[in-house]
Specification:
The protein has an 8-stranded mixed β-sheet, sandwiched between helices. It contains 5 helices and 8 strands; from the N terminus they run βββαβαβαββαβα. It has a single domain, classed as 3-Layer(aba) Sandwich (Rossmann fold).
Length: about 220
């Protein structure tokens, strides 16, 4: 990791439901990858400024990668209305397209909670995405939200799953059961004492990402 601070740029992406508010943390001139990070459920307060999303960005940006965060449709200054996880798939594709066009580098995807559930669905079949990270994967939502993770069985790119062992949206046993169905290569890390938002455990979450990227991603 180079540990260099990066310039921050605010911008808008041209999405299918209107412009999407975004923030880019610039990378180094010799960056090997670019990254896109997605935020948790917008109807429950999720935005690109979420703490988990911010710390994930810092972990990836620490390798010199430019990192794009954006607000899903209807969130913050992003136009459109919440798409119940369907429209948001196109938002993720828009962000991946922008990062690919802007940097012409292989991509790393990371998402937290809703952002992981939706974003992985878009990132896994995308050949430009070389590695994917799911944080706080909502394997057992406590309300009427449901997510289909069957696509992970055929997602053959390197994948990291990080959750707290006290996650309210999926017990360790439930997450382990899901990860068993996921194709290799894969790694699952449980953060001791961590809840869904990694409250008080953000440093450990960030270090888990940094270690995995350092070990897994070819520079």
């Amino acid at each position: 990791m180079n540990g260099q601070a990066s310039a921050i740029r605010s911008l808008f992406l041209d999405g299918p439901a209107g412009r999407l508010e975004a923030v880019l943390n610039a990378g180094t001139a010799d960056a090997a990858y670019a990254a896109v990070v997605c935020h948790p459920h917008p109807l429950y307060g999720g935005t690109l400024h979420n703490k988990v999303v911010f710390h994930t960005m810092k972990a990836l940006n620490g390798f010199g990668f430019p990192v794009l965060r954006f607000n899903f449709r209807g969130t913050g200054l992003s136009q459109g209305e919440h798409g119940h996880g369907i429209g948001e798939l196109d938002d993720v594709r828009t962000a991946l397209d922008w990062a690919d066009h802007e940097f012409q580098l292989p991509l790393i995807f990371a998402g937290f909670s809703f952002g992981a559930a939706v974003g992985l669905h878009a990132a896994c079949p995308d050949g430009r995405v070389k590695a994917a990270i799911g944080l706080g994967l909502p394997v057992a939502p406590i309300d009427d939200r449901t997510y289909d993770f069957s696509f992970l069985a055929s997602c053959s790119k390197p994948k990291l799953f990080v959750s707290g062992d006290r996650d309210q949206f999926g017990t360790p046993a439930q997450l382990k059961a899901l990860v068993r169905t996921v194709s290799e290569p894969k790694k699952m890390i449980l953060i001791p004492g961590g809840d869904h938002f990694f409250e008080g455990r953000l440093r450990e979450m960030r270090e888990a990402i940094e270690q995995w990227v350092g070990e897994t991603v070819n520079f």
